[in-house]
Amino acid sequence: MLCVVYKSPKLDQTYLYVLRRDDFSAVPEALLNTFGKPQLVTLINLATKSKLAHADIEKVRHQLTEQGFYLQLPPPPEDLLKAHKESQQHKE
């Protein structure tokens, strides 16, 4: 399964996976407006991959098959204060 990956010029670390180059027909218009003009990043053959760096490959395959696209959002920001408080509680 081949897919094409685009990055958002508006949203940092946000990527859109589609089945065919420059075919955004399955992507809702509101999402494309928020995403901005997609910028080509790469082509990926998902059949030859066992994992992706920042996305669950099975979820990507499923959503591409079911809805024709997959949206990869950035990871949530790390809450360093919360992590510090939790580490302090374990010391007590």
What does this structure look like?
The chain has 92 residues and is an alpha+beta fold. The chain is built from 3 helices and 4 strands. The protein is globular and about 55 Å long.
Q: Any chance you could write out the topology, listing elements then pairs?
A:
Blueprint lengths: L1 E6 L7 E4 L10 H7 L3 E7 L11 H11 L1 E4 L7 H12 L1
Antiparallel strand pairs: 1-2, 1-3, 2-4
Mean pLDDT across residues: 90
Arrangement of strands in the largest sheet: 3-1-2-4
Give a short account of the largest sheet.
4 strands, antiparallel
Radius of gyration: 17 Å
> What's the tally of helices?
3
Sheet/helix structural class: alpha+beta
Shape: globular
User: From N to C, what is the helix and strand string?
Assistant: EEHEHEH
Beta content comes to 15-25%
Q: What does this entry show, briefly?
A:
The chain is of the alpha+beta class. 33% of the residues lie in helices and 23% in strands. 13% of the residues are buried.
Protein traits:
3 helices, 4-stranded antiparallel beta sheet, 92 residues, 4 strands, globular, alpha+beta
